[in-house]
Amino acid sequence: MTTEIAAPEGTRYVAVFSYAAGHAVNEKLDEIQSYRLGEALAKIHQTLDKFKSSFTRPALKSEYLLDWSLEAIAPLYQHRESDMNYLQKQVDKIKKQLEEFKLPLLAPAYGICVGDVHSGNAHFTEHNEPTLFDFDQCGYGWRAFDIAKFLHVAIRMKIDVSVRNSFLEGYQSIRKLSENELSSIPMFIKAAHIWVMGINTNAVGDVLPYGWFTEEWMDERLAMLKSL
pTM of the predicted model, to two decimals? Predict the structure, then answer.
């Protein structure tokens, strides 16, 4: 259901959805839940291979994930020239390595992606059955990126590597990834990290306050990027 509300800044639009059964587990995700979530994503990808839409979304490729993100970050941190140069070098490196994998622009390797699958964007029932939500970052892209996006959030949440591996096992129980897809995932994890930085900085003054973006904010994100 959608409706309008009269907000101080003008008319705002609200979407109300039915409740997803269960609850979010966030950093408490276990191996069984992770496996089921991987299965669910693979099944979504298979279903979306046959789906055609007349609507347009940004393609989840280097131009959006990386170039656009740098453009969003730069106005807030242009005074940190050496760090921005480091980010640019990382972007160039990621783009070059992704090109070398020569991932196809055809299903099942490429198609509509959810864009933000993780243990906070799903509810699990007592029988560990997942319901996914929050599809606002969806778009056409490589399915390896969708997997990497989950892994990126899981790393940020400090979820154990065995639990992270269960997600990949669950996915591959439905759709086997090619060697190049598997090899590209670490690069896509870095791309996801930079993209999330761009999404955040792009929302400044609208969704997030300028005070959110401190020197510590950049320090923490650069430190994580260097650790990936």
Answer: 0.93
